[in-house]
Specification:
Two copies of one chain form a homodimer.
Chain A (H helix, E strand, L loop, with lengths): L16 H15 L6 H8 L3 H7 L3 H16 L13 H7 L21 H18 L3 H11 L5 H15 L7 H29 L5 H13 L7 H12 L2 H20 L13
Chain A binds a DNA duplex (19 and 19 nucleotides) through α2 and α3.
Chain lengths: ~280, ~280
DNA sequence: ACCTGAACACCGTTCAAGT
DNA sequence: ACCTGAACACCGTTCAAGT
């Protein structure tokens, strides 16, 4: 009874892997993890399931492709891999939220405007901002990680962070550690934030972040003070915090650790720190 | 045709939420995320689905309870919350892998044996070791996070880390940042490692980690050198790295960042650092 | 209060058949 | 080579009925 093929294809364009992945991303954006269904997909693309299975092996591969496409866009890459979206114009728009992404109004730092530190922050915020339009991203990243740990997406993130770690002057023996720490922090913080955003939307679609965080910290304040003294102590602090600021502070924390631990001076690259 | 109720209940113990959660953990451990099914559960518990639904609202709640039980055990807590396993003996054993968990043979550090730093490392390794028996844990943590960001599990981890952050002497204004950074790193690194373990087991059940890491770094070396110069450069380094050492190095990196950024000296707690 | 189990709606996937 | 669509196996969940 509902209208079939809600959005007719703009041209007589044949079905392609790119179009399928594009539709998958749209469904995920619109209705979350549960919104991507082969039936919803066939309706949207006006085909049968068999047609989709001719281009894509199964649902996991489709999810991986959707995840890879969004991450690639967030990292501003035009990759040659097959798991990419066809329309870079549309993806570029996705990576650009309402507010300016560029780290314009940032606290005064001692580095030059385009230092490796700044580039790391830019990469991190690229992913951070991508989850605003794609709240399903962190969960899917985790799922893909559990399916194939060194699939296509993780290496891409690792590579872009790693290059800046190298540019930072970290001795080669610590590249892996430093890059891993940064990537792990970014993925962890990004996931937490996606969850906050999603639940803020769910609880009250038109309520703003401040109100949601107030409610969340209220929930924290309701915890047993004997079991959760620390959380109760930071509840007020959480209510007032700004997510982006917090995210940046965490990155700078890791960057400081890398600098302090792996960039002592110019010599003693041969003697790694004690711990 | 298979034997029903493979493990008959030891006593005439009635069905309870605890028994259901326990069986859920066993199924997850045995067959992963896809292994937990209401049909498998009813077979194992020798009941019908309706009986389970009387004790548990739905599958998500069951997964959350299983996740919470394993995390609580890993943190060595006996919580009063309902989402816990009934048999602490069995859970205590789960938290204790074949090798000693206690940070006995660690690199020489400048802190006292039971410093907050050491306690943070112990908490982190508690979670780290838990995923050896429960590879599904990180993914489920991510899923629960996306379902209810400040559910029961995250606060528990946040609380135990946060207390040590406070004990570290971090000024109150930075508690949230410091604890968040640690938790995010731990969750991120833990997830990565669970993925590595799982895929190592999948690729070849009897092959050891070294061989698997060799294969993984081979895969890295197969990447396009133009697109992935950094990953290619660290591929060899990855082959030789020890996971636990790497995990610890990351934690120490964050700890160093916290110390350097938030513990400058005793005064100037009123003037936060520039960045 | 606690449990049973048939039944329902929905899902991913397959495959013989078309063009 | 590419697509169709009925059909299959399986899943989470419900609910009238039992004790």
């Amino acid at each position: 009874m509902a209208t079939r093929a809600r959005r007719s294809q703009r041209r007589t364009e044949a079905l392609s892997r790119e179009r399928i992945v594009e539709a998958a991303v749209e469904l995920l954006d619109a209705a979350g993890e549960g919104g991507l269904t082969f039936r919803a997909l066939t309706e949207r693309l006006a085909t049968g399931p068999g047609a989709i299975y001719w281009h894509v092996a199964n649902k996991d591969e489709l999810l991986d492709a959707a995840t890879g496409a969004v991450v690639a866009a967030a990292l501003s890459l035009d990759s040659t891999e097959p798991a990419e979206l066809a329309e870079p114009a549309e993806l570029a728009e996705l990576a650009e939220p309402t507010e300016p992404v560029e780290p314009a109004d940032r606290a005064e730092s001692a580095q030059s405007p385009d230092s490796p530190q700044d580039k790391i922050r830019a990469i991190a915020f690229g992913l951070y901002d991508a989850i605003e339009d794609h709240p399903w991203l962190p969960t899917q990243l985790a799922l893909q990680l559990s399916r194939s740990p060194w699939g296509s997406v993780t290496p891409r993130i690792f590579e872009s962070i790693g290059r800046q770690v190298r540019a930072l002057g970290v001795p080669e023996g610590h590249w892996f550690t430093a890059a891993s720490a940064l990537v792990h922090y970014i993925l962890g913080a990004t996931g937490q934030n996606a969850a906050n955003n999603a639940s803020a939307r769910t609880l009250a679609p038109d309520v703003d972040r401040a109100e949601f965080l107030g409610a969340a910290s209220k929930a924290w304040e309701g915890l047993d003070p004997d079991d959760y003294p620390f959380i109760r102590a930071v509840a007020a602090q959480m209510r007032e915090h700004d997510d982006r600021e917090q995210f940046l502070a965490g990155i700078d924390l890791v960057l400081t650790g890398i600098t302090a631990l792996h960039l002592p001076s110019e010599q003693d690259r041969t003697t790694p720190p004690a711990t």
